[in-house]
Amino acid sequence: MTPPHVPLIERWQEHLPFEAADRVITLQEGSTPVVRAPHVSELVGADVYLKLEGANPTGSFKDRGMTCAVSAAVRDRALAVMCASTGNTAASAAAYAARAGITCAVIVPEGKIALGKLAQTLMHGARVISLQGNFDRALELVRELTATHPIVLVNSVNEYRIEGQKTAAFELDVDLAGELDLLCIPVGNAGNITSYWRGFKEVGAAPRLFGFQAAGAAPLVLGHPVEHPETVASAIRIGKPVRWEDAMNAVTESRGAIRAVSDAEILAAYRLLAAREGVFCEPASAAAVAGLVKYGAEGAETVACVLTGRGLKDPDTAIANNDGRIIQCEARSDAIEEAVLGEP
Predict the structure, then answer these.
(1) Pairing assessment for the beta strands 127-131 and 103-109 based on DSSP bridges
(2) Strand locations in the chain, DSSP E?
């Protein structure tokens, strides 16, 4: 019999703030694949790997931090958890709260959440509040409410989130035999880049960290908050990252940088990954590859790009960017033959 997948907290318990007797709220997250990207490797002249965080149970990297945040909330006898979200955090929090048997409430910016993420959140039974405002305002309100009520905030300001997410760095260090020179990662609220650097430091690794923001939501690049962030990459549509200082420390210590990529560049990388590498990720994930292609590997030999979520999270963007590949066809064999074998 094949042994079961080891949940993240159990696999890395010596690095995490949990005891063996603690109840672990898990969906068997972590241990996600690392696959080589031959086409991207050729484009940038380096050995490029993709860390497929969309293979986590709810389809994004958020599950790494959420298993820890919700397990800690249950240990502390919380009755509810709450978050502001552009989608992935909401879906993950809702799933882990359902698993734990506690209430979950989420605030999402009205009209700014991808349908796949909203569907997940609703199906897991969360209380979804649609806010007439952006993510940054939603987070302000959540922080106010959780400060005055016995509700646990599970956004990345929660230290348990950072602790869980750092385990992806442990995995990359193991899977790439300590040879990683450069990590490329999307940056929104900046919790994930903070987590990776914490993890790398704990295992004595020191790759350079390149974080990429969408040009319309690039406060770390501009050096000031963005009042009305806009980008097709909804997961990083954030104008005031809560881990701002931590993220800047991470890139400074790692000799890295935070840079911007346009929506056009993000969508080009999004299509390239699907069509040439066979990997369908959400648009925000593609920012990592867009940045690598735009700015280059800068001498790095081994590069990893973090793909934070799977493509089915945002079906509308996929359909809107299919370049007319759906072929209308009459129900005749010759018409089918032409559709299959004719000029594309």
Answers:
(1) parallel
(2) 34-36, 47-52, 80-84, 103-109, 127-131, 152-153, 182-186, 208-214, 257-261, 302-307
Give the global pTM: 0.94
Place of tokens 């759906």: 326
CA distance 191 to 244: 9
The letter for the amino acid at 202 is: E
Average pLDDT over residues 126-149: 91
Domains and CATH numbers, the chain: 8-58+165-320 (3.40.50.1100), 62-159 (3.40.50.1100)
Sign, CA dihedral 161-307-247-16, equals: positive
Among all chains, which residue has been given the structure tokens 């318990």? 13
Q: For residue range 3-17, what is the model confidence (pLDDT) as tens digits?
A: 568 899 999 999 999
Average pLDDT, the chain: 94
User: What distance in Å separates the CA atoms of residue 261 and residue 141, rounded to the nearest whole number?
Assistant: 30
